[in-house]
Amino acid sequence: QLQLVESGGGLVQSGGSLRLSCAATGSGFTLADYTMAWFRQAPGKEREDVSCVTGNGGTRVYADSVKGRFTMAKDNAKNTVYLEMNSLKPEDTAVYYCAAYYTGSYYVACDQINYNYWGQGTQVSVSS
Q1: Any residues with CB less than 8 A from the CB of 68 and at least 6 apart, and which?
Q2: What is the mean pLDDT of residues 96-102?
């Protein structure tokens, strides 16, 4: 069973930066076998996909709303994924969730997955 714990959220002014981390723990797993993603959900809105990366980190996909501002990285050796967020806007305010799905050595389009492992979320608030 994989557990995911997000950290790094907080309050930042518009134009600022934050770096979110998602640490994966569990017994006998290899993070390279998991496709990972970041989602976010603002109050009163549906959950939105932000970014995802394949198991080996070779393919990343970003939502149009964050392209050029957010960068997702996956460190399989540290069992951690990151979301570097720059030029933050008030509309980026949301709870950000890390998610995972076991894909083994197969390539699966990371934006076409029904993720089944989720973290508890971390709040990001951007003031204007």
Answers
A1: none
A2: 97
